[in-house]
Amino acid sequence: MYFSAETLATNSRLRSHWNELWANRNMWDAQHRAMMAVNRNLMTPEMLAANALAGDGLGREFWAEIDRQVIQLRDQEIGMEIVNDLMGVQTVLPIGKTAKLYNVVGDIADDVQVSLDGQPPFSFDHTEYGSDGDPIPVYTAGYGVNWRLAAGLNTVGIDLVLDSQLAKMRKFHKRRVKGYLDGNPTIQVQNYPAQGMRNHRNTAKINLGSGAGGVSIDLTTATPAELLEFFGPTGAFGITARANKVTAYDVLWLSAEIMANLSKPYTIEVGSGANAVISGNVLDAIRKFMPVKDIRQTYALTGNEFLAYERRQDVITPLVGMAVGVVPLPRPMPQSNYNFQIMSAEGLQIKRDDDGLSGVVYGADLD
Q1: Organism's domain of life (predicted)?
Q2: Lowest mean pLDDT: which of 101-110, 139-148, 320-329?
């Protein structure tokens, strides 16, 4: 998803994306040199100053600053902590793939003959395959710097570029996070819609509301006993985990409001004397009964809302067709502005296995 020394060292497909990114940047340098060669003798001193790039290109130091800021901003958007947590199970794909499809194995006859001679009767049928898949949309955004203000992208110019990128990158990341959580309703490939963790067809859902099928609980105000019942083995959360054969979800993300309720002080009387009271908070008291390895708070969820998953590539995986990168757009004239494009291609795949089981669960008022 991001170009860094670590990701480039461990993923050959990502290195291919990196080479394509630099091919675009080098093409810009070649185009800029050609434009300057044709027009240099006709340009005014002001034009020459605004187009004076070291080596007639933007240069490695310029792009190092651009790429460094992309990495610095990756953790600053609300909800990005969820996306980043899944990067260890990402699937990097060629940019030409617009969707990641997979087969779902169907049923087969369940006759198994037990005999002494091992001869029929038993059937020789074969399984049927279904299919599922998820799109990999492209995210794009742009920002620019006026050619006169840039002054050849010297020290003042690069600061203006970085400030512009900072503002636009925040909006870019916000839209990406929304895609991971809620999908993109306008994107569909071969009847497969782009869905997110909260609304994916393969996410197990628990209706916390009081409508039909709801469990009628508000986790932001529930008592410790109610919280223990809900998250414990016999409550809706525990039952959903067992129904999907999940021993423990790797991460349970909670809204700040639910976490605040779980953080309330809680004491337990276990006998008499000086050690009769054990103090802590509600979460301390109930977490050992919860089928969860790690519990974290996120402001991407609000109110009566939670999300949990097994962090496994066969359960949930970000689909990366192009890591987040910045490329310059051609400047056909010396008075053309310095425009830049932010681009990534990424989707999300959540699978159910051959038995229809899911390792992702979302809870909210779904009435």
Answers
A1: Bacteria
A2: 101-110
Tell me how crowded residue 62 is: count the other CB atoms within 10 A of its CB.
19
Collapsing DSSP to helix, strand or coil, 43 comes out as coil
Q: Looking at this protein, which amino acid is placed at residue 142? A: G
d(CA 180, CA 200): 10
50, 146 in Cβ contact below 8 A? Answer: no
**How many alpha carbons lie under 13 Å from residue 80 in its C-beta half-sphere?**
18
Phi then psi for 217, rounded to 5 degrees? -145, 140
- Express each pLDDT in 236-288 by its tens digit: 999 999 999 999 999 999 999 999 999 998 876 655 655 555 568 999 999 99
List of domains in the chain: 5-105+128-195+314-350 (3.30.2400.30), 204-312+357-364 (3.30.2320)
Q: How far is CA 196 from CA 120, 165, 342, in A?
A: 48, 26, 22
**Cβ 56 vs Cβ 29: under 8 Å:** yes
DSSP string, 287-302: GGGSSBS-EEE-TTS-
pTM of this prediction? 0.86
Both tokens of 266, joined, read: 């809680």
Q: Are strands 129-135 and 138-145 parallel, antiparallel or unpaired?
A: unpaired
Residue-level pLDDT at 270: 57
What is d(CA 238, CA 246) in angstroms, rounded to the nearest whole number? 9
| Bridge pairing between strands 251-254 and 265-269 | unpaired
